[in-house]
Design a protein that fits this description.
Layout (H helix, E strand, L loop, with lengths): L1 E8 L4 E12 L4 E5 L2 E2 L9 E5 L2 E8 L5 E9 L4 E4 L13
Parallel strand pairs: 4-8
Antiparallel strand pairs: 1-2, 2-3, 5-6, 6-7, 7-8
Length: about 100
């Protein structure tokens, strides 16, 4: 699971948003925060994420302040690396590991 909202901060008057990747194991009912390497990604919510083979692709979303993201990211489960996917002529190059 990547990003999303959690607690409402009364002090900041907004729902806090994260950029964490959380691995949830449904068999033993555990969860752990995954450390990533590569680029730092801003906190986001309302994005789209899908997995394919050993990658998770993330597109768009908004920041806590409402800034709109229109980028595409790829996270590799094996290397734990997050990269930004460069779109060339509106088409993504082969970025699945």
């Amino acid at each position: 699971m990547f990003g999303g909202c959690f607690n409402y901060s009364r002090k900041r008057k907004l729902r806090e948003t994260t950029n964490q990747i959380v691995e949830i194991n449904l068999f033993d009912k555990t969860q752990q925060i995954i450390k990533t390497v590569g680029m730092a990604v801003g906190v986001r919510k309302n994005h789209t994420a899908a997995t394919f083979k050993n990658s998770m692709v993330i597109f768009g979303g908004t920041s806590e302040s409402g800034m709109l993201y229109q980028d595409m990211l790829s996270y590799n489960f094996d290397t734990q690396e997050m990269i930004k996917v460069q779109l060339i002529g509106g088409v993504a190059p082969e970025f699945f590991y």
